[in-house]
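Fold this sequence, please.
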Amino acid sequence: MSPDLILLSARLLDPGTGHLLPHTALASHDGRLTHLGSDSEIRRLATPATTVIDLKGAVVTPGFTDSHIHPVSGAERTMGADLSACRDLDAVRAALAAHAEHLAPGAWLRGWGLDPNAFGDRPVAAASLGPVLDGVPFLIDLFDGHSALAGGRALELAGVTGPRRFEQAAEIVCDDAGRPTGLLLEDAACELVEAAAPKPTEAEVRARTAEVLRTMAAAGLTGGHAMDANGGSLATLAALEADGALPLRFRVAPWCQPGADAGAVAELIRLQGTGGRLWRVAGVKLFMDGTIDNGTAWLERPDCHGESTHAFWPDPERFSQVVAELHRAGVPTATHAIGDAAVRHVLDSVEKAQTHDGTPVRHRVEHIETVPDDTVPRFARLRVTASMQPTHCCEYTRADHTDNWSRRLGEERASHAFRCRDLWEAGARVVLGSDWPIAPFPPLGVMAGARHRRPGDLSRPPHGPEQALTPLQALQGITLNPAWVAGEERVAGRLAVGHRADLTVLADNPLDVADADLAALPVLLTVVDGRPTHRAAHL
């Protein structure tokens, strides 16, 4: 059993202790680590077929896993105009005008990453964009992925002329006269216009996904917990793997939406475990609320506009029933719950499911932007994982609370939010992710955000610095803990014989690099299943 891959002259970092292992080399065969030892010991195992790489003292960690990411739907979503860097309406209008110049007559304009803070005191409405897209059918995703802005022509083509009722907490926002403003809240409303817009071909989606995944591999990602299986995303992953073009390992959780009947839930259970070598369906994604920015979160006290008072499921008890059914089948759930009432209801539902069935299932809650003190210790007691996206706090809120999110919540709750450190110290298992394309995916940036809680402009003050994680905690949140929540702690998350050869190689020890410098730390090599998926030119 000769090695496929050998790495020499390495510093091997154990994320469990934060210490370097007493070895300088490793070998892998058929996607698993087979040997750890000295350079001379491991070098002797090489054959002419072995790839041997001298790392020249670089640091090897277990592969970085993004615990909340949307690889295929995100790739498709980001094929339009990128508005994520636009901080005011002038910048938004300029970016849209530049993109519109290249459109064929009658073609749709798609955009993404639009921050509601860019509108300032103006309403988030199509009219606020001015005449820049007059006559152009456009549909622009807001940064949160839970809302969109559609122009008049797009609404006309979709047949959207006024308010409608939905099975979930969704809304076509209308003015006092009942005319749509263009703002669409939550999927059911957005999908009305999505259905009328042209769709990219399967080949275009596959090519775009492959491009994005290569960039992710270059950033040091070896895997992700993909929080959707919408449309043809599973087929896209299968096709990329068949072509040898899948550079990350994915654990996929398809969605369960309000209105799902017994047949739909049974199909989600049937899908579990299906997949390929590098991807498989494992878990189900649910939504308990929307977003604070849209007024669609579920809060125990309304926001400053009197909004965010209802669950995403019109009948929250039905959500609890679905969680119990999935729990009995041994299916882990990952529930989007941003507001305190939403988080509480998810934990209540898990506790009821555990009471009636002792099956050990590793459930998780996504986002957890605001929770009271009494909720924090329940995560550890119920063994529910806290899935956090620190760059949401860094990029979309401000320390002075002048942003839309903070203004809606109010000073008290905005000052006591994104409680990564409190959850960790209470004994919860905390995993880190980006929620890309909502926020940037580079894992070093995610870790840095967890450590310094500052925006890209590091001269600006941090938001809630008391909630920052230590360097070791941030590393564990992207290596050890994702393996645990996936039930894969015996095969992933550590540098040990028998574990997967999913590796991230860095120019220096991330535990020794300053918080402000971490995001720029060079990624020299990424290995998935024993195969290099990114390699710096000088290696």
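The mean pLDDT is 95. The CA atoms of residues 62 and 495 lie 6 Å apart.
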